[in-house]
What we know:
- This protein has helices spanning 3-9, 49-61, 73-81, 98-108, 123-129, 152-161, 174-177, 212-225, 231-242, 244-263, 282-288, 305-313, 344-349, 366-386; strands at 66-70, 89-93, 114-118, 134-140, 165-169, 187-191, 205-209, 268-272, 295-300, 319-320, 330-332, 356-360.
- By secondary structure, the chain is of the alpha/beta class.
- The strands form 2 sheets. A 7-stranded mixed sheet has the order 1-7-6-5-4-2-3, sandwiched between helices. A 5-stranded mixed sheet has the order 8-9-12-11-10, with helices on one face.
- Strand 2, helix 4 and strand 3 form a beta-alpha-beta unit.
- The longest helix is centred in the last third of the chain and has 21 residues, at 366-386.
Amino acid sequence: MQKETTIIHAIPVDELTGAISVPIYQTATYVQESPGIHKGYDYARSNNPTRKVLEDLIATLENGAAGFAFASGLAAIDAVLKLLKTGDEILAVDDIYGGAFRLFTHVYEKFGIKVTYVDTTEIINVIDNITANTKLVWLESPTNPTLKISDIEAICNIAHQYGALVVVDNTFASPVAQQPLLIGADIIVHSGTKYLAGHSDVIAGLVVTKTDALAEKIKFIQNASGGILGPFDSWLTIRGIETLPLRIEKSSANALAVARFLSDHELVDKVYYPGLPTHKNHLIATRQQQHFGGVVSFSLKDDKVANANTFCSNTHLFKCAESLGGVKSLICHPASMTHKSIPEQKRKQSGIQDSLIRLSCGIEAAADLVQDLQLAFEKNFSTVQQNKFTY
């Protein structure tokens, strides 16, 4: 079956009532027939029927052994990191989500877990920095926010030679566009807040494991740590996933139109979008992705924070806000918003310049989004001229 059909029919009809919409089981505990004798549910932290539908659904979409739903994307990342022990090492992509960097650096490094950041788009960097102590290779592909593409299959082959697991943050691509477990990855993480839920109305995180052995470990951590996703938020995420293929297709088409517009604009320095033939790893993206996603980043020729901030304040349809992947288009300035927690030198080394702007294209008409950006350029350029700055 095609992905659209699989998604819709992987969501079960309620056996008890025939309800076509998954029921929200808003309960903390379950009545047992006698001590230890129950219907598979004893306490809602351990299991919940609504959450289980979501967990089974994401496992199906990612072709994994099992899925697990958490209270946020960072809670999902945290659960995976709890597989490690003191002395273990992580080899991570340099252009990493700011929240993940904060968690790695300010929480787990103090417990004796070393993190090395490299540009994983160059395989030689992985070969040169992986060690016998490396237990996790942490990838985002595409990355946030410079849309770097790593060769997942090639990196998996290297990591597995060292006995390391490969974790892929598949948030930007979604399982509609990319399925890393099929090309060697061991664990998938998602910020379900983004494309999966898709309507900017829920915070959620998901983990999918390739094997039952890993699933057993993550399940134990989920239950022991307790950062589970509630039933209503699980239901919202399920509802969002129902339209995921349609939204990914539309937002990807919009992003490509926007990327082409930006590529021809005289005030733009660089455009970051894997769907453009000029992207460094466009061919790899073409091979491992079915869509290129709805996120486009670009930098202005004048690398000043003030100019980027002014531009972000001059759009109308693109709303200035954190997050991405919703039906409404968003704009943000990573250096002062999503990646502010990353030290300036390291941030710039990974490609996040002061003038870098990230766009999350929603499902509006592409022509309207392009016009919105054009008007912002005109207004921004006029403001810059008045302040005697030049591009």
